[in-house]
Amino acid sequence: SCHAEYASTSWSRPVSTVMTALDVVVPLEIPLANWSVQPSPGIVSTTISTYHQCPLPQRVPVRLTADPAFLLQPSRGERVAAILEKEGLEGSPRPWIGVSVSETAARWGGGDAGRLQDAVANALDRVISLHGGTAVFVPHVSAPDNDDRLVSKAVIQGMKERGRTAVLKGDYSCEEMKGVIGACDLFMGARTHATIAAASQGVPTLAIAYSAKAYGIMEDVLDRERCTIDVKALTAERLAEKGSDLLANRAAVASAIEGRLDGIKARAFENGRLIAEALGRRRRVGPVLSPAA
User: Whose CA is closest to 196, among 7, 23, 17, 3?
Assistant: First the structure.
């Protein structure tokens, strides 16, 4: 729904959806721009937890799916190797601890940005002191007023082990970014789709949760208690403890995650089928819109 609202703003015309994704238990209705404007014929819940919590009346169909980001195909092989070489990561000590930090997590989750940065910095020092390795910061958003690279550098400045860190400097496609995330041994993330990029490749993942969707996603992937930490309750001790647990048991954790991925990806494909089904019930009234239209 947020993407539909963004498109509506950027295209200067109404945009609507044929299905609404339910990340939190709030029903939304936004009809699709180039189709007849009617109430959305259904709602999809992208996690099991929100599906079971949904309080909507029986007349509103709710379907259990999964976030389509689970289906994004990562870059692999030579392309990822070229990025790692360009970023100076080839040969960096293992394990690689992927990190995604943002101001958004604190702002939307009711936490404190400074405390979040300090907690992540101190937690990474603890994990690196125990397991060795390199903290690889993966900026997932780099907008002028919302740049994860700046937050990443602030975290590094608070670390004692700042010499064992790296921040991706280049601008990469979604597929390339996911390929780099897949090369990590552990991923600790405050960006939802960065954590999905990791978990969907079997990388042990710890989500810094600022909304209900993080809990639902990690519950589907492995275990919400083991794989999430609330941004409001974030401490270096808790983050380091959970990260160290996942890293120390990464082979078993990766195997458990991979055992669930086929089912999650099948649910993600269901989004397309449901949309096609919904569109089949609509009367087309105009040309397909594009940002250039």
Answer: 23
